[in-house]
Design brief:
Elements: E1 2-11, E2 16-28, E3 31-42, E4 45-57, E5 66-78, E6 82-94, E7 100-108, E8 112-123, E9 126-127
Antiparallel strand pairs: 1-2, 1-8, 2-3, 3-4, 4-5, 5-6, 6-7, 7-8, 8-9
């Protein structure tokens, strides 16, 4: 299990700037399924962005240093209207096999998508 907080910028016609929680599970050591929410502003109105993303971790056991991963999934955005997007990108995180660390992501999906945040990780009964 993983939980975290993120800031998000989706640069498009009405750039969304926001932040919110991220929850994830790792069904295998090298895959992660994440549900993220961002609440903020786009074009001067309140906006919500929900994402369901799959991550493929290239070095999931790394306990020190930076690990990288690929991202694919879907996003739903509500501002003045509802929009759906496919999301693809890349990410980097500190210590993917450790109990916590920062992350940063870049990609596309409803414009250029940039996120940064912090994750805490644990296994049932103990920390990773």
């Amino acid at each position: 299990m993983e939980a975290g907080l993120q800031g998000l910028v989706a640069i498009s016609d009405s750039t969304l700037v926001g932040g919110g929680p991220v929850l994830a599970i790792r069904p295998t050591s090298s895959t992660r399924i994440a549900l993220a929410a961002a609440f903020g502003s786009a074009g001067g109105v309140f906006a919500t962005r929900l994402e369901l993303l799959g991550h493929f971790l290239l070095d999931p056991a790394r306990r020190r240093g930076v690990g990288t991963y690929g991202i694919g999934g879907v996003a739903w955005v509500h501002d003045r209207a509802d929009h759906g997007y496919l999301v693809v990108g890349v990410g980097a995180e500190w210590s993917p096999g450790g109990p916590r660390g920062w992350f940063a992501e870049a990609g596309v999906g409803g414009g250029w998508r940039l996120t940064a945040g912090y994750r805490w990780r644990w296994r049932r009964g103990h920390s990773l």
